[in-house]
Structures are given as C-alpha cells and as structure tokens.
C-alpha cells in the first residue's frame, strides 16, 4: 500500500513537471510572439502613418484646387477618372508662375502695393508680418537657420540641455559682452517649435556632431531617439 502511494506521488510529480515545462514553453512562445508583434509595429507604423498623411495631404490639395477651378475645367469634367496628385501638380505650377511674375518689375510693384495696403489694416497687418517672417525664415536662402547643435549647462551647473545655435551674437547686445557669445535657441519637448532664446559664451558650450535634423528628432522623442555619434564630455 505504501509503495502504491509512493508510485502515485512520483507520477503526480512527473505530471506536474511536464505541465510546468509545457507552461514554460507556451510562455516563451507568447513572449516571442509579443516581441515579434512590437517589432512589426515599430517597422510598419512609421511608414504607414507617413504614407497615410501624404495620401490625405495630396487628396486635400486635389480637392481644394479642384473647387477653385471653374466648373468646366474641374478635374471631374475633364478627365474620365481621378488622377491622384494632379491638384498638387497644378498648385506647384501655379506657385512657380506667381514666383516668376513677382520677380519682374510689374509683379514686384503689385506685391509692394498689396503689402502697403495690408500694413494699413489693424490686426491683419500684425498677422501678416508674423506669417511673412516665419515663411521667410523657413524658405529664404538669405536667412541663417540653425547651424549646429550644442550642449550647455542650464539652468544650473551639473544639468545639461540641448540647444540650437542660430548665429554668433552681434549688434547692440554683443557690445555688452567682452567674450564671444552665441545665440542659442532652447527648444521644448515634444514641440521643438516653442522655446526661448539665451545668450551663452561660446566656451561654455559643447558642440555636437549630430545634425540639426537629428537634434530635432532627439527633442521630439524625449530622448528616445538618440544619434549614435553623440560625443561624450571628457
């Protein structure tokens, strides 16, 4: 009787061990499937979202341009089927023609006349001036954009922050300093378009090898996307 009980106990132990092994195998399989799922999301999500946003933007431009055309020239009445991107192409050609026209004497005169009229209108003049400065900063070749990415100690010693150098400090503000200073824009996370401007001695900054685009990605991601070529402080 005692031997029978021992045999049953050993059988139960063996069965329990087998069940635990099977459970461990299923857990490992589940962990691998979960890892594969996350890897698939990381690979496909950025591409899918990018193409989806491009798709939505192209069709939004197509619809907007189509509505601005006279009825007899709208795409639906000219072509038997929809052509994605046709509105965007028409818009690009239109903007090129406008740019060519404004480069001439008559076009430049009309632009200056329009700006003079807009600047005389309260509130609208402020909005127009702001938007013009923003677009000139983005598209003008004469405007110096961010040149490099630096690290500096801010707001106190021992705490480091990422900044974008816009230019070397000049003009009236420069006259109040004895050493070489830099204009540094400190962005906020995750929106790098907002932030504040500070004046920092050049010797107190560490220039990084990362590009401005890499630095912006670093800020937007909250430090999750860090360029590998970022040097360490010696």
Largest sheet: 5 strands, antiparallel
> Helical stretch count?
7
Radius of gyration: 31 Å
- How are strands sequenced across the largest beta sheet? 4-3-2-1-5
The global form is flat
Number of strands: 5
Integer average pLDDT: 79
Low-confidence parts, pLDDT < 50 over ≥5 residues? Answer: 230-234
Q: What order do the helices and strands follow?
A: HHHHHEEHEEEH
State the distance separating the first and last CA atoms.
77 Å
Keywords:
234 residues, alpha+beta, SH3 type barrels, 3 domains, five-stranded antiparallel beta sheet, 7 helices, disordered C terminus
Question: How would you describe this structure to a colleague?
Answer:
By secondary structure, the protein is an alpha+beta fold. 56% of the residues lie in helices and 14% in strands. The protein contains seven helices and five strands; from the N terminus they run αααααββαβββα. β1 and β2 form a beta hairpin. A five-stranded antiparallel beta sheet has the order 4-3-2-1-5, with helices on one face.
């Amino acid at each position: 009787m005692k031997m029978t009980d021992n045999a049953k106990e050993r059988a139960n132990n063996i069965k329990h061990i087998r069940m635990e092994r099977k459970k461990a195998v299923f857990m490992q399989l589940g962990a691998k499937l979960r890892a594969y799922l996350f890897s698939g999301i990381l690979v496909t999500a950025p591409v899918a979202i990018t193409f989806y946003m491009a798709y939505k933007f192209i069709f939004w431009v197509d619809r907007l341009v189509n509505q601005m055309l006279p009825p007899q020239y709208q795409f639906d009445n000219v072509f038997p089927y929809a052509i994605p991107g046709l509105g965007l192409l028409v818009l690009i050609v239109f903007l090129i023609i406008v740019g060519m026209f404004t480069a001439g004497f008559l076009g430049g005169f009309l632009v200056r006349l329009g700006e003079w009229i807009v600047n005389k209108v309260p509130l609208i003049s402020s909005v127009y001036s702001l938007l013009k400065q923003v677009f000139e900063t983005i598209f003008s070749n004469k405007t110096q954009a961010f040149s490099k990415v630096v690290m500096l100690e801010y707001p106190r010693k021992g705490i480091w922050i990422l900044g974008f150098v816009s230019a070397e400090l000049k003009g009236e503000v420069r006259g109040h300093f004895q050493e070489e200073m830099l204009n540094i824009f400190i962005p906020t996370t995750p929106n790098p378009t907002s932030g504040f401007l500070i004046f920092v001695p050049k010797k107190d900054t560490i220039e990084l090898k990362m590009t401005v685009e890499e630095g912006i990605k670093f800020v937007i991601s909250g430090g999750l996307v860090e360029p590998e070529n970022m040097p360490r402080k010696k």
